[in-house]
Design a protein that fits this description.
By secondary structure, this protein is an alpha/beta fold. About 25% of the residues lie in helices and about 25% in strands. It has 14 helices and 30 strands. Strands 11, 12, 13, 14, 15, 21, 22, 23 and 26 form a nine-stranded mixed sheet that branches. An eight-stranded mixed sheet has the order 1-6-7-8-10-9-4-5, with helices on both faces. Helix 2 (about 30-40) packs antiparallel against helix 4 (about 130-140) and helix 9 (about 365-375) runs antiparallel to helix 10 (about 410-420).
């Protein structure tokens, strides 16, 4: 505590434009936990985790995320609905309003960094309005040693002020909330929203520009683990495809669950120091690592307690289905020391195809890998959103479009080069439906998906017979240890094979229609990876 008092007296925010604030610097998780409870902004759950409510916003607001258009970004960023431009002068004016708003108030300051590989480390100073937001940053970003703090020099600054509401008519925002990145000033400015994921994804978006443009390193929205032989596996996938579940393998050590970089030195490093997991329908049986990580130091967001208790009802989505928990990675037992893996050997693209068309496992050529990476396909099932009455395709470029400032083909070309240079195998895994679409077929059994991934990792699919899918052209193994052969070819699982052919061709056209906006930037190899039909 003496250290905190000393730092509070010596840390000044005047260089940020914040005058005479009461600075709570580098408080411990326990201190931030207690301040949140005493201030009435959170309560302690039955497991010891802090439970808070993020307010009006319980998820990201992608239409209110901007990038300042300036000499650094103007010719590099892929401007459009994802990367919305913001004027530099407007940012300067809004920044001054936010820092004036914080002046003379109590704030919480944390020095942290991202990128576990020391060669790529990026120091970040975080200024938050609430103690619990500061605790989130303790969990999610990497934690400097105490002796580093006396000479800590931040390169980027993140300001998060939920109670500050912008005036769109004056400030140039769409509405009162905003998340803006400025690559010249090296600032992430967040206001009007308490959703903590905006902080995490703000820094992730910054790295998705910095690493490929300045460091020749591929940023990836993926999980990663490493085996006993030192081989690294990478798992890409959108929400609901099994990215967290399948990378949590008791026989392999977790590098990280969401954001990584792949370097020129052929290493894979975690950006983060923690995990931010969905907890809707969470159970110890299905997600033991996440379930057991929800203890003192973790933060639960927007959950509901069971009547008259402080025990979380993980099935209750009254506030939002996007209930979350953040926790430091050391809450997980089986982790890779240093959060760095070497020697990437296998990449898995995970899709939950609710049309029941794609094979449960297939091997991709470099061109196909780039095509499917840019496509970032999964499918929504009926009932997940209002108006969704049958399976709907969901494409998110690079399996993380909302966070990618560059054109998706830039990342895809980097991925293709790296997988060739490192002789990496790329697999497409369908964790979705078999025997027909959602409502007719069944979800692929988790034990079979795990068996297929294990076989791929162990090299047990290297010498088996493959057949190319007649519509998508991807190579499908005809046998796999511990998996019934009849489910490997999805056409054979449908009662009406001709209906399968028709629906497969329809899905292929959906792929092509989605890809049309990328074609002018895609090279011949990538275009050769498209479906055949």
């Amino acid at each position: 505590m003496d250290n905190n008092i000393l730092f509070s007296q010596s840390i000044s925010l005047k260089d940020l434009g914040i005058e005479n604030a009461k600075v709570n610097y580098q408080l411990s998780p326990d201190e931030l936990h207690e301040i949140t409870i005493k201030s009435g902004q959170g309560v302690e759950s039955s497991t010891g985790a802090l439970a808070i409510n993020t307010g009006e916003y319980t998820g990201r607001s992608p239409l209110d995320r901007f990038i300042v258009k300036d000499s650094i970004t103007e010719d590099q960023v892929w401007w459009g609905k994802v990367n919305i431009p913001f004027e530099s002068d407007a940012f300067e004016a809004l920044y001054k309003k936010v820092t004036a708003y914080l002046s003379h108030k109590e704030v919480f300051v944390r020095d942290s960094y991202v990128c576990a590989d020391p060669n790529y480390r990026l120091n970040v100073r975080v200024v938050t309005e609430t103690a619990w937001a500061n605790l989130f940053c303790y969990n999610m970003f990497l934690r400097p040693e105490t002796e580093e703090l006396s000479h800590f020099s931040p390169e980027w600054t993140l300001l998060c002020v939920p109670s500050f509401l912008a005036d769109p008519a004056i400030d140039g925002t769409r509405q009162s909330n905003f998340a803006i990145l400025d690559f010249t000033r090296k600032v992430v400015l967040i206001g009007g929203t308490g959703y903590t994921g905006e902080m995490k994804k703000g820094i992730f978006s910054a790295l998705n520009f910095i690493l490929p443009v300045f460091k020749n390193t591929l940023p990836m929205h993926c999980s990663a683990n490493v085996g006993d032989e030192g081989d690294t596996a990478i798992f890409f996938g959108l929400s609901g495809t099994g990215k967290t579940t399948l990378s949590a393998d008791p026989k392999r050590k977790l590098i990280g669950d969401d954001e990584h970089g792949w370097t020129n030195e052929n290493t894979v490093f975690n950006f983060e120091g923690g995990c931010y997991a969905k907890v809707v329908n969470l159970s110890e049986e299905n997600e033991p690592d996440i379930f057991r990580a929800i203890k003192k130091g973790a933060i639960l967001e927007n959950v509901i307690f069971k009547d008259g208790t402080n025990e979380v009802d993980f099935q209750d989505v009254f506030i939002t289905p996007n209930t979350r928990v953040s926790y430091p990675i050391y809450h997980i037992d089986n982790i890779q020391p240093g959060s760095i893996g070497k020697n990437p050997k296998n990449i898995f693209f995970l899709t939950a195809d609710s049309f029941g068309i794609l094979p449960p496992i297939s091997k991709l050529t470099p061109g196909q890998a780039a095509y499917h990476f840019i496509s970032g396909y999964t499918a929504k099932v009926a009932g997940t959103e209002a108006g969704v009455t049958e399976p709907q395709p969901n494409f998110s470029a690079c399996f993380g479009a909302p966070f990618m400032p560059l054109h998706p083909t830039k990342y895809a070309e980097m991925l293709s080069k790296k997988m060739k240079d490192a002789n990496v195998k790329v697999w497409l895994i369908n964790t979705g439906w078999t025997g027909g679409p959602y409502g007719i077929g069944n979800r692929m059994k988790l034990k079979y998906t795990r068996a297929m991934i294990t076989a791929a990792l162990n090299g047990e699919l290297d010498d088996v017979t493959y057949e190319n899918h007649t519509v998508f052209g991807i190579a499908t193994p005809q046998s796999c240890p511990n998996v019934p052969s009849e489910i490997l070819n999805p056409r054979n699982t449908w009662e009406d094979p001709e209906l399968y052919d028709k629906k497969a061709a329809e899905l292929a056209q959906k792929f092509k229609a989605n890809f049309a906006k990328f074609e002018e930037f895609a090279n011949a190899e990538i275009m050769a990876g498209a479906p055949l039909a």
